[in-house]
Batch of 2 targets.
Target 1
Amino acid sequence: MFSVFPIDNGVVAPKGFYCDGVSAGLKKDNAPDVAFIYSDSLCEVEGIFTQNKFCAAPILHFQSYPKGFQTNFVLINSKNANALTGDEGVENVREVLSALQGYFSVIKNPIMSSTGVIGVQLPKQSIINAFSKIDLTKCDNKNAAEAIMTTDRFSKTIAFEVVLEDKSSFKIGAICKGAGMINPSLATMLCFITTDAKIPKQDMQELLKIASETTFNAISVDGDTSTNDTVLLLSNGQSGAYEKEAFLFALQKIMHKLATDIARDGEGATKLAAFEVKGAKTQEEAQKAAKALSQSLLVKTALFGCDPNWGRIASTIGASGIVCDAKKLEIYFDSICVYAKGMIYFDKENEQKAAEVLKKDSFKITCMIGEGEGEFVAYGCDLGYEYVKINADYRT
Amino acid sequence: MFSVFPIDNGVVAPKGFYCDGVSAGLKKDNAPDVAFIYSDSLCEVEGIFTQNKFCAAPILHFQSYPKGFQTNFVLINSKNANALTGDEGVENVREVLSALQGYFSVIKNPIMSSTGVIGVQLPKQSIINAFSKIDLTKCDNKNAAEAIMTTDRFSKTIAFEVVLEDKSSFKIGAICKGAGMINPSLATMLCFITTDAKIPKQDMQELLKIASETTFNAISVDGDTSTNDTVLLLSNGQSGAYEKEAFLFALQKIMHKLATDIARDGEGATKLAAFEVKGAKTQEEAQKAAKALSQSLLVKTALFGCDPNWGRIASTIGASGIVCDAKKLEIYFDSICVYAKGMIYFDKENEQKAAEVLKKDSFKITCMIGEGEGEFVAYGCDLGYEYVKINADYRT
């Protein structure tokens, strides 16, 4: 038994962590564009990264550290992804972090993380010039969460305190960014999770993987997998407390909230949709069909138009490649049945009710396949004019 | 040796074929919404159909004919897909075609084909009432091509005469529709091809498959695979002439033109893009990467905005799962190199030139992978506000 309480302050909720966001002049109007997370004692660190073959320079740099290295510092910049920037891009990470260590002798094995435009060399001098604004005693989670935003409409942060049966407790907190270029093939955004739990190193990667499967790997905004996707977990163990099941519960809660926040904040999105597939032949088939629904342009535009067009949903299931039969399929908008086993329930009254469901800012679309026990929930959003506007003009 | 000449009159260019489009009141303002193709002698027929598991009732009906059946009539309606309509949907096809044979005793083994909204029962009586408007001696290819349009902005038709070395000749013609719900997983639209070539039955399926691989299977508008996709080839052999290589050449030319017409007419599209991948490890990998480019929302919106954002192109290649290395990759907009082997050629002058390329109504984006000999060209279009408008409001 354990209890979990929501608390404030995101990544600096756990003991011994500090953070802030400062301006390096990458964004307009002195908005914060460089964030740091610092721990006053060394942290174990684990990450999961994009599966894009052209992963960004800061990820390549992370992977150049020896296995099992410890760190006490993460530097994050927005506006520039430092991806597809060749050897020069990796060298730029080294130079920035080396200058950082020259500035703050307390920093050990710093990690960098970047998000923004692909294929432009890092404005390293601007970032280095901003080091003078970094105060390692600051605990400004709001500034840090805002500094890492790109096309995000709102900042994303969350933290929990977990109290174990023996009354010992630990904290876990996170900041996260992501709105476009989101696809469920892996990490799909930047997320930094801190904890003072005394988690064994070997549990970190295992629990991150389990938790990501139903959270960050279950969301889609546009089906494109970024070059920079990163989830980092930093633990300094300062609470002395840990219990595996409790930690996984809290980690999943954190990652689920942030993942659905990202889907809800999908570029141009006006609503969050949960695509639930039940009764598929296997869990893999349920996942395949649910993700196909979350990625279908015809489904996403119908949601935008509040059109309960179940034909497009059925068609997407049929095209997803899973075992299915129109005579077993059932489709629901929240609790409204619109199609069941070859019978169309789509009279004017149900159409009205289903359209009402789609006017809510979040809802669930359920497809019962009737072939087995496989289940999966994928999260997505609608696609409207704003998505086109944002992405047709991104670099200008 | 053979010669190929473009000719007029689409499906009625070959000897012995007749067609027309009439109004059954499914579309507004008496616009033609029911088309027929009739041959005055029996035809061999072969088709390729959607791989969507919930394929439409008329396809199920086609498949209920005995293998090797001959026909002389195809009836096509727009506005209603007759898909996901259960046993009643198939029964409706039977009733309509049986009424048709009652009306015209000359019709043998008629085929039906439908396109439009999914999940609504066929307005069979309206279609049957329109039989009185059908005149089997008509040769109005324009009316027929217009009757099968849904969101198409222009009708799609083409025909060739093929003159063989011995001066014998045959003709081949087609009409086609398709603009949304287009995905390269199979036939992806409705296409009716007629010929008076004396093609052996066993060549028909083989040549259709070869020709579709680089044409209808290489286009994408929105990545959604329709329930109704159909390519039908009807041959009445009346010319007495045939030569396999010449027929394949003409068939490929016809299908390539119609496939690129569909991509160009993508819902809301303003331009046609050829995505060429060269030097992939295998042909399959080239196809995978080229199709990924043609389906990436971030690439499609950048094209709409005339933004030569090569970073999104590189990122899509990297995410496609093929063997690739940023230090070997080269990217071109037509002949303008923007990225080569880790060097970014994207100075202001090249940016200007690349943006000019994207302002044309068709262009080629080439990615050289540098890993082998695999090549493929996929065709797609940009995605703009109109796509959202059309698909958010389709049923209203």
Target 2
Amino acid sequence: MGTGSQAVLAVLGRGLVDPASAVVRVDDSGLTRGDGCFEGCRVLDGAIDKLDLHLARMARSAAALEIPFDEAAWRDLAALAVSAWKHPGEAAMKLLLTRGPTGFAAIGPLPPDYPRQRRDGLRVVTLDRGFASDAFASAPWLLGGVKSLSYAVNMAAQREAVRRGADDVIFVSTDGVVLEAPTGSVVWSVGRTLHTTPPGATGILAGTTQRRLFERATDTGWRTELTLGTVDDLRAADVVWLVGSVRGPVDVVAIDGTPRDRNPVVDGEIRRLAGF
Amino acid sequence: MGTGSQAVLAVLGRGLVDPASAVVRVDDSGLTRGDGCFEGCRVLDGAIDKLDLHLARMARSAAALEIPFDEAAWRDLAALAVSAWKHPGEAAMKLLLTRGPTGFAAIGPLPPDYPRQRRDGLRVVTLDRGFASDAFASAPWLLGGVKSLSYAVNMAAQREAVRRGADDVIFVSTDGVVLEAPTGSVVWSVGRTLHTTPPGATGILAGTTQRRLFERATDTGWRTELTLGTVDDLRAADVVWLVGSVRGPVDVVAIDGTPRDRNPVVDGEIRRLAGF
């Protein structure tokens, strides 16, 4: 999402608004407390990719936060925003709802790093997330699986990755289980089996692109498994991807400074299955 | 902080602004990622309480987040806001800085629950924070001790407390150590010794009111200790307080539904030492 010259902003209850205007008050707890939820969606040639999955997850996030969510109004808002977006090709849309409540759909260009990352792959570092892999089992106040606005740790981890000469992060639990990336799922392949971390007790987000990928992969002969894997499992895997809705699946080319061979055949197949 | 008719808003780089106006754009990562930091301060009869301690902590938070922080400019901004606040008695000031960067000082009335809570004490529930008590020892990306805008879990925990018929929360580590409240420190007394949880590896915030209380208590013959205590330690304590900058120290009158006797003599002494 950007709000420069190439941008569209539609605000819930207001309609299209100048994207350079301020729309959030200083007492909105989405700002003061990170108290709200969001989705990041891919726009491709004027169509929103898997909007149903994003709205369903946003409804779950809002319900966990006890913020009212009118799915039909959000569907209309997203349609209004995309109708005003006149650029072909890929774009990024953010849907964001605060407890304020402030709600908006904003569309802007792809993040500038994404083309290079898709081409060259991702150098990742593994970072401890501080939680055990079952920390969220019976503690709903920890907001496991909720795509909240409280992403400061996710952003700090990505800065730590850059400091270490890498592009992104794979979070690991205190008991050594691979969790997720700050803004995406982790998927790895071993032969014709795709693995990802189970949501639920791990607290990770259920990825929408990971979900679609696994459904389509199953249709084309892959096995899929929800696996509590380790970093050693990633090292031994054929291919490891970080999978996000806007960036798509991008293969990991180094883990903690150790390069990995790329596998263009499997990688290409997985990217195409995910719609990229 | 409120932004109703009784409110003042001063924005960094702009000066005094209508507090009902929107000042934050939708691409400000303070909003989209909870990526920023804040302080909540008490204003009493037109003076800001312990502003130096708040600015020092905010500078540490901003440094941890790698956001530039100009302490002199913030001192001027706070002074500008308080000069426009014409109401005697107590008020709440919020200082907030995003990566945007957006910075503001906002002043409004005390939260409406505080007078009742101060009078009747706090019923608290203990909730698992999901982290071990040493989770933050060597993981700066987890932002231990940083007063970031990513407070969604803190707010969800307070909603859980209300759901259980209580007023507030004491977070506990997975290994049973008392941590902090969602918006304050935990302090407890045993005889003439005051205890609180050490910051650092525990990840808790270093409380400014707790700090001042401990300094003044030492001057009047109390011993003070940084203690990795348990909920049983709290049950056995003479008095337990949640200590915040705006609410002050408020004694705990029930833990997980079990009432506690109040001790008005010790409680009164501690509140006065803290300046309340």
